[in-house]
Amino acid sequence: MSKELVFGHQNPDTDAIVAAMAFAYLQQQLGNDVEAVALGEPNEETSYALRHFAAATPRIIKEASSEVDSVMLVDHNESQQSVADIKDLTVTHVVDHHRIANFETVSPLFYRAEPVGCTSTILLSMFNENKVEIPAQLAGLMMSAIISDTLLMKSPTTTEKDRIAIKTLAEIADIDFESYGLEMLKAGTNLDDKSEAELIEADAKTFDMAGKKVRIDQVNTVDIEAVFKRQAAFEAAIEADNKANGYDLFVLLITDILNSNSEALVIGEPAEAFEKAFNVKLNNHRAQLAGVVSRKKQVVPQLTEAF
Amino acid sequence: MSKELVFGHQNPDTDAIVAAMAFAYLQQQLGNDVEAVALGEPNEETSYALRHFAAATPRIIKEASSEVDSVMLVDHNESQQSVADIKDLTVTHVVDHHRIANFETVSPLFYRAEPVGCTSTILLSMFNENKVEIPAQLAGLMMSAIISDTLLMKSPTTTEKDRIAIKTLAEIADIDFESYGLEMLKAGTNLDDKSEAELIEADAKTFDMAGKKVRIDQVNTVDIEAVFKRQAAFEAAIEADNKANGYDLFVLLITDILNSNSEALVIGEPAEAFEKAFNVKLNNHRAQLAGVVSRKKQVVPQLTEAF
């Protein structure tokens, strides 16, 4: 086969970056010409993990069709979350743990999805099925991705398979996953150096819900109240972002990773869809969402149903 | 989990019936409450295989939501090829070897697709990965499905993995796959007892191409000319079918399974899309397609591109 690129979603989190590196490595071991790239700069949490395991950051691309015809997607499938010129490319492989939507191919392809907490958990199975050994550095990164996606196994997206995967990879990487994981998650909660405009973009994804463009961003913290001291500035940034990009509704999810709760800031219309989805009344555009930490499992399906 | 149904596509072929039986068996061995059903009567080829291996025909259903909330799909994913009330059901699993289109979920799911010749080939991998033994009867049926989909390994959809799967399953079933396979394929080419209306429906699938409803049916034979002696009656049946169901374009593919060629009968508009797709001129609504035996690989992508 001719060379292919493999990448995760826009505004990459740790799994989007690491799953691309892991799947590229697996494909290379199987004899295929594949390069892992990223659709954006790593966030602070991911940078912490890459630094800790002394791994290089993948090359960042804005489009792919000028260098390849075919690509492999990890940790996403929806076209609006993918590379800008995805319509001009053939998708040959997908490895993902999200719902399937806005995804269509002309020809058969390789698609592997499981309803588990992290793409890297699925990739661990695929390494085993193909009898390919995982180097210690890559194992540490894949473990970091699962810790990131499951908030150290506290998210309701966590499955028994994710727990076993973290422990298996921690053994290969020879690391205490609990203490490392907490430090890594905390590294991602340093918000002071970032503008509101940066923060509402950093982990944002767009969804099509009944024809409306819904943008959902999630910010991890250890102190929700401290984040809401910046509420006015967040609102202004979101209003500007909605206007510039045509988002109908913006949900900013501020998640306390220590206590596993979130509070949402909701700007745009129809805000009633949010109230209906969570059976709450917005007060000053805000609502507490007790126990909510997973966009994928506790926000997107509920909001989709409400629309 | 509560009980789920697993089924293949409408107008089931051997893989649609057998893959449902095989996936249900695998799920049952993993402790899940699953029943294999079918969306239509088995065709003559499938009946031959079920009879040969003394297997019962799965129960036939018209809708599923009155008995279950969730379903598993095999050998298809496009909603218009699935059970009539698919929109009211949650799809938890898909195992398939076709393109992905008109498929969308609210939540993450288990999805396993590979660009191989047959769903049963993928299922063989899944039995191995889960370390579940395949009973001889089921192995014979799965082998039959792969022989059916690959026309005894002559179709260009055939991969090395399909070849190995046929041999592996033939060993478990303790059968000479070459002589059995030819008899099974021939059993499916007995067209004399069937009306034109039955034949244009038997293996038909609907595709959405640029907003047009395209219907493609395939009839296997050992004598293309003999089939075209019934051309006038086929045309009348197709015109009535197009009118009754709103199909824009109907492509009837008559495939010579011994010589690996097809001739198409094309009724409806835009017929130019067909001519463009295959770079042929239709003569009396007909065109020879040398070497074409696979709807999935040699017809659907080409026609989709032309639209």
TrEMBL record, chains A, B:
UniProt remark on cofactor binding: Binds 2 manganese ions per subunit.
Classify the source by domain of life. Bacteria
Query: Is Acetylation among this UniProt entry's keywords?
Result: no
One example of the protein's molecular function in GO is:
manganese ion binding
Q: Which SMART domains match?
A: DHHA2
Sites where the protein binds Mn(2+) 1: 9, 13, 75
Cofactor(s) the protein needs: Mn(2+)
Q: Which residues bind Mn(2+) 2?
A: 15, 75, 97, 149
Annotated Pfam families: DHH (PF01368), DHHA2 (PF02833)
Tell me which EC number(s) this protein carries: 3.6.1.1
Q: Where in the cell is it found?
A: Cytoplasm
Catalysed reactions listed for this entry: diphosphate + H2O = 2 phosphate + H(+)
Q: Which residues form the DHHA2 domain?
A: 181-307
Q: Which GO terms describe its cellular component?
A: cytoplasm
Its keywords, alphabetically, are: Cytoplasm, Hydrolase, Manganese, Metal-binding
Q: Per the similarity annotation, which family is this?
A: Belongs to the PPase class C family.
The name on file for this protein is Probable manganese-dependent inorganic pyrophosphatase
**Provenance organism:** Latilactobacillus curvatus JCM 1096 = DSM 20019
